């Protein structure tokens, strides 16, 4: 499921780049790629930071067993996945923008 979700995010980055290119037509493909690839993984990173912070500050009564540690570990794993999705989305967007510029 996470792989499918990641592939969807990577595939949405070039679609978002069309909107960025429409509003900023003079930007180079490099900058359009960075901006459009950073939107969705940035939201995921913010959510991961919120989960990590709330789990790390939770009282021992609130955490049953290792549930807070597991939440922190999964937030860390999803943050790493978001960074990888950002890099792959940037590559996909950069080459998509270069392909559009040649047309």
Tell me what the structure shows.
The longest helix is centred in the C-terminal third of the chain and has 36 residues, at 67-102. The chain has one domain (2-102). The mean pLDDT is 88. Helix 1 crosses helix 3 and helix 2 (29-56) packs antiparallel against helix 3 (67-102). It starts with a helix and ends with a helix. It is built from 3 helices and no strands. The protein is mostly helical and 103 residues long.
Anisotropy-based shape: elongated
Helices, by number, come to 3
What is the number of domains?
1
- The helix-strand sequence is HHH
Poorly predicted sequence stretches spanning 5 or more consecutive residues: none
Helix content: over 70%
Nearest-integer average pLDDT: 88
Radius of gyration: 17 Å
What's the N-to-C terminus distance? Answer: 35 Å
DSSP E strands, number:
0
The main pleated sheet reads as: none
Strand content: under 5%
What class, by secondary structure content? mainly alpha
SSE arrangement:
Layout: H1 2-23, H2 29-56, H3 67-102
Helix pairs in contact: 1-2, 1-3, 2-3
């Amino acid at each position: 499921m996470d792989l499918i979700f990641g592939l969807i995010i990577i595939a949405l980055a070039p679609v978002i780049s069309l909107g960025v290119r429409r509003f900023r037509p003079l930007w180079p493909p490099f900058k359009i790629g960075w901006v459009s690839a950073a939107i969705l993984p940035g939201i995921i990173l913010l959510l991961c930071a919120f989960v990590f912070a709330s789990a790390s500050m939770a009282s021992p009564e609130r955490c049953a067993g290792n549930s807070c540690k597991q939440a922190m570990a999964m937030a860390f794993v999803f943050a790493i996945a978001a960074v990888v999705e950002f890099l792959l989305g940037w590559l996909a967007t950069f080459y998509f923008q270069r392909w559009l510029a040649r047309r």
